[in-house]
């Protein structure tokens, strides 16, 4: 498996209402409900039309789901992150946001969490699922930092 295959989309099947059934390049199959995102993001409003939503297809090179090529698509990394969150997991995007919010590098974040830089890189890239205790450590570290400030 190549480094980013877990974000590459192998197959997509649109299901009503606003559900995508996606097989990713690493063989993982996930279902993501886009109803809330479609409501929240004005650029996605056309997808409220079930006929258009049903036209979902894998984009060129497999990095997106396309409805109107070059105009209306969603990236595989965002779709996977949303599917992970909807299934009760913790997406890689939370680690990115936590690091950015706190001005942390990969090295300083790994030290703060007491884990190896390599393992944090796996979590941040989405290559490995983020264990709940790691996310709780991020939340706790940030709370302690704010309390001390």
List the helices and strands and how they pair.
Elements: E1 9-15, E2 19-24, E3 29-33, H1 35-40, H2 50-53, E4 57-58, E5 64-68, E6 72-75, H3 76-86, H4 92-101, H5 106-113, H6 117-125, H7 132-148
Antiparallel strand pairs: 1-2, 2-3, 4-5, 5-6
SSE-based structural type: alpha+beta
Radius of gyration: 17 Å
Strand order of the largest sheet: 1-2-3
**Helix residue percentage:** 40-55%
Low-confidence stretches: none
Query: What oligomeric arrangement do these chains adopt?
Result: single chain
The overall average pLDDT, rounded, is: 94
Describe this structure in words.
- The protein is an alpha+beta fold and 149 residues long.
- It folds into 2 domains: 9-86, NE0471 N-terminal domain-like (2-Layer Sandwich); 92-148, Orthogonal Bundle (434 Repressor (Amino-terminal Domain)), CATH 1.10.260.40.
- The chain has helices at 35-40, 50-53, 76-86, 92-101, 106-113, 117-125, 132-148, and strands at 9-15, 19-24, 29-33, 57-58, 64-68, 72-75.
- The strands form 2 sheets. It has a 3-stranded antiparallel sheet with strand order 1-2-3. Strands 4-5-6 form a 3-stranded antiparallel sheet.
- Strand 4 (57-58) and strand 5 form a beta hairpin.
- The longest helix has 17 residues, at 132-148.
- It is elongated, with a radius of gyration of 17 Å.
- The model has no long low-confidence stretch (mean pLDDT 94).
């Amino acid at each position: 498996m190549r480094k980013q295959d877990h974000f590459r989309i192998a197959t997509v099947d649109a299901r009503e209402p606003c559900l995508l059934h996606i097989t990713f390049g690493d063989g993982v199959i996930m279902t993501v409900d886009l109803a809330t995102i479609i409501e929240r993001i004005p650029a996605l409003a056309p997808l409220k039309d079930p006929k258009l939503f049903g036209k979902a297809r894998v984009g060129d090179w497999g990095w997106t789901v396309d409805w109107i090529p070059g105009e209306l698509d969603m990236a595989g990394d965002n779709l996977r992150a949303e599917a992970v969150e909807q299934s009760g997991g913790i997406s890689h995007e939370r680690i990115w946001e936590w690091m950015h919010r706190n001005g942390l590098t990969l090295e300083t974040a790994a030290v703060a969490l007491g884990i190896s830089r390599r393992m944090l890189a796996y979590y941040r890239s989405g290559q490995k699922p983020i264990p709940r205790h790691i996310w709780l450590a991020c939340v706790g570290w940030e709370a302690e930092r704010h309390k001390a400030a």
